[in-house]
Amino acid sequence: MFREGDASLAMYVIKTGKLGILKSKGNSEISLAELGPGDMVGEMAFFDQKPRSASARAVSDTTVIELPFKALNAQFKTFPEWSKAIMRTVNNHLRNANQRIKALEKSEEESNAVFPPHTVTRLCAILGTVAKVYGEKTPDGSGTLVPPGTLRKYTIQIFQQPTNKMQTMLEVLQGLGHLKVEELGEGRQRITVFQPDFLIRFVDFYNDFLFKSEDKRTSIEEKEMKAVKALLFYGKKATPNEKGEVKLNLTQMQNDSMRDLGALFNVDDVNSLAEKKLVGEKFSLEGALGMSFNFAELETQYPYWELIHACRKITRT
Q: Could you tell me if 204 and 136 are in contact, meaning their C-beta atoms sit under 8 angstroms apart?
């Protein structure tokens, strides 16, 4: 019926059916409540005209009575001042309580995470900086050797991070192919970072993402990564136009995916990516379904989100 962030112009009374109240969390949604006949929706915005704080979506065939704020305001002006003051105060208290609950939930979520987002950026920044400033090129030029003693000093003494967290980060990055750790015995290691610039760019990307307001964040969820990987696999074979966009036959991708990728790609797997405008909308293409997207932009983001999701999976360190 309306989306979180929409302008508030009316409240509604449910006559028949059910409405689900949904709250955005990143790029997914969580269900807050399910309302039925007689319940009212959107009434809080009547007092302060703030955008919708949640979305309302019909769960079943639903009939509502619309009460436009413009008409209600005319009646509200006739109320006694003390009555209007009480109603505004209750509304403000409810909004403030919702904000405090949201802040507490976010704080609890981050405190329970083994690798909170800002720990990820801090560790990658340390590693990338030490590699760029103190590292030496490998003899074959394939990477940069990071001096373990300097990395340890920056981790513990300068940025006051536990060495076991840095070691876990090294393991994560090695698993994703960004570096190589060789054990030399007696606790000594040879650490080769293949692209120090990737770590620096990742830190800038993730830091910018974290400091954006939630309504301006566009993330690639873990369940969407398979579709992005398929788009990049086939997109690499296509020729981009002058805008850097490639055009793909999604139907053909679906038919060839098991053979080429070992996993089924479905044309509907890209729907959520299109909603976020990470890729273009689907269109008809010679009896099939097609899609266009900027290959370079998606290719750049994919390894960043691969690293983010790998860090989110860490349960102990």
A: no
**Residue 290 phi/psi, 5° resolution?**
-120, 170
Sorted by sequence, the CB contacts under 8 Å of residue 77 that are 6+ apart come out as none
Contacts of 65 (CB under 8 A, 6+ apart): 12, 13, 15
Count the alpha carbons within 13 Å of 82 in the hemisphere toward its beta carbon. 0
Which architecture does CATH list for 117-209? Orthogonal Bundle (1.10)
Q: How open is the CA angle 281-285-291, to the nearest 5 degrees?
A: 30
Please give the CATH architecture assigned to the domain spanning 222-308: Orthogonal Bundle (1.10)
Say yes or no to pLDDT of 230 above 50.
yes
Which residue type is seen at 163?
T
Boundaries of CATH 2.60.120.10 in the chain?
A: 10-111
10-111 belongs to which homologous superfamily? Answer: Jelly Rolls (2.60.120.10)
| pLDDT tens digit sequence for 255-308 | 999 999 999 999 999 999 999 999 999 999 888 999 999 999 999 999 999 999
Supply the mean pLDDT for the chain.
87
**Predicted structure pTM score:** 0.66
User: Is there a contact between 21 and 62 (Cβ–Cβ < 8 Å)?
Assistant: no
**Where are the CATH 1.10.10.10 domain residues in the chain?**
117-209, 222-308
